[in-house]
Amino acid sequence: DSFAAKFDDTQECAFMCLSNLAANESNHSPLIKQGAFKAFVDRSSSTKNDGGKTSIFALANLTANSETLSQVGRGGGIRPLIALAKSDNLHAQCLAISSLRRLGFIRENRDRMMVEGILETLTSACNTAEPEILREVASCFCNLSLSSDYHLDTARTAISELVILAKSNDFETVRCSLGAIGNLTEAIEAHPLILRQGNVPFLDTIIGCLERKEIDIKREAARAISNLLSSIEIHPQIIQRGLDSLILLSARTCEECQYLTALSFRKLSPTISSHHSLINSGLQNILSLVKVQDSKTRKHAITALRDLSASGKDNILFFKLGAPASMVELVKDNDKDIQILAVATLRHLSSNGCITEDFSSSGIVQSVIRCISWANEDLRCQIAGLFANLSEHMECQSIMVLNGIVQAIDTLLSIEHHEIWQENRPCSIVKVD
Predict the structure, then answer these.
(1) Alpha helices in 250-376 (DSSP H)
(2) What confidence score (pLDDT) does residue 373 get?
(3) Cα–Cα distances in angstroms (integers) from residue 392 to residues 111, 273, 413, 426, 429, in the given order
(4) What torsion do the CA atoms of 45, 48, 50, 56 make, to the nearest 10 degrees?
(5) 131-144 and 171-184 helices cross at what angle (nearest 10)?
(6) What pLDDT sits at residue 94?
(7) What is the three-class DSSP state of 62?
(8) Nearest CA to 251 among 242, 262, 241, 240?
(9) Cα–Cα distance between 71 and 65 in angstroms, integer?
């Protein structure tokens, strides 16, 4: 018995030494190569004295080194850390969750963590009042949500906890929980699971984050909303409670916020009930978004403009804010999709009598004729529709003829396409006269 006790003491001191060495990042690779890591894992389940905890603390220290994260995961370090994350000792619990958060940077580790029950461990840890633990939990959820394979499981298990974390007063906790929600909402299959959480005011929380002053939080909330808008059933609630905040955010210089709000407007614009706010409160901002450098943002914004201009409501505001001139500039864009959308918007606006004001100097006909020769079928159809609408205005006809409309119509009519021929019938009257 005396020998066994001395042997245990010797082992304990040896592991204490190795654990202390693991606190120094420069020692991590040698410790792993020389077998210390395996010894820590093997001893992590020990119930003698604090030997098990000492070994798990050493494993936690090893995760501080990005170069060893894969080895810790492959070597069995995740299970003991998840066990420690359930500890009643707040310091130990925080250390374990922090280690798991770092391990979650690696895809293969996220797979192992899910198998070992990380979701239940994290949701249980949300019951604490310790801000530092909640911050680590939110960050760990955020890393786990990077794996699309687990979006449904995470939404089903943890969306209520994530929404509660998003109400925190701690900036990093809110940012990470919103980041996780934004990642989860990328899966449209998860939307019903997220939105049916009747016990949690989910949308109120996300929309409320749009109104916070921190731009990072606004951006993550906008990302979640833009993803959710892929589900049309959510449109009425966003229009009623969140559209004004999205419009305000679209005026920010943050490029990602510009992209996300333009995307949201594009998804909302087919819903007629959004038009009043988007036109009367948001049109100026949308017209600004079509001028930004990012082509994806421009494309989303001009798609929204096309849909809004088609409604026929409040069209006068498009002219007051110079929408036709903006579209003329976009007709010159190198992106054919943007050109088509610009001409389609002009086509919708050209039904309004306001199009005749300063028509001779607007450059509409010249810019559109210039691209006929290399335009694809879709663009030519939109051009034909625009010419047909313009020819309905007596004030436009002579200017159209002077700018070469006859030759342009000849080019369009040379194409065998039913819609182009149909749209150009009114224009053919101009040609005959």
Answers:
(1) 255-268, 275-280, 283-289, 295-310, 315-320, 323-331, 336-349, 359-362, 364-370
(2) 78
(3) 64, 30, 19, 7, 10
(4) -20
(5) 20
(6) 93
(7) helix
(8) 262
(9) 11
Tell me if 141 sits within 8 A of 154, measured CB to CB.
yes
Residue type, 118: I
For residue 57, give the DSSP letter.
Answer: H
Structure tokens at 356: 């005749």
- Separation CA 384–CA 407 (nearest Å): 13
Structure tokens at 243: 């559209």
Rounded to 5 degrees, what are φ and ψ at 259? -60, -45
* Alpha helices (H) along 126-213: 131-144, 151-165, 171-184, 191-195, 202-210
* Amino acid at the residue 425: R
C-alpha dist (Å) from residue 145 to 80, 111, 175, 286, 431: 22, 11, 14, 31, 62
On whether the CB atoms of residues 278 and 286 are closer than 8 A, the answer is: yes
- Tokens for 250? 């679209």
How many residues are given for the chain?
A: 433
Segment 256-296, tens digit of pLDDT: 999 999 999 999 999 999 999 999 999 999 999 999 999 99
Is the pLDDT at 199 greater than 50, yes or no? no
Distance of CA 143 to the CA centre of its chain: 15
DSSP class of 254: -
Measured between alpha carbons, how far is 299 from 94 in angstroms, rounded to an integer? 45
Q: Are 167 and 207 in contact (CB under 8 A)?
A: no
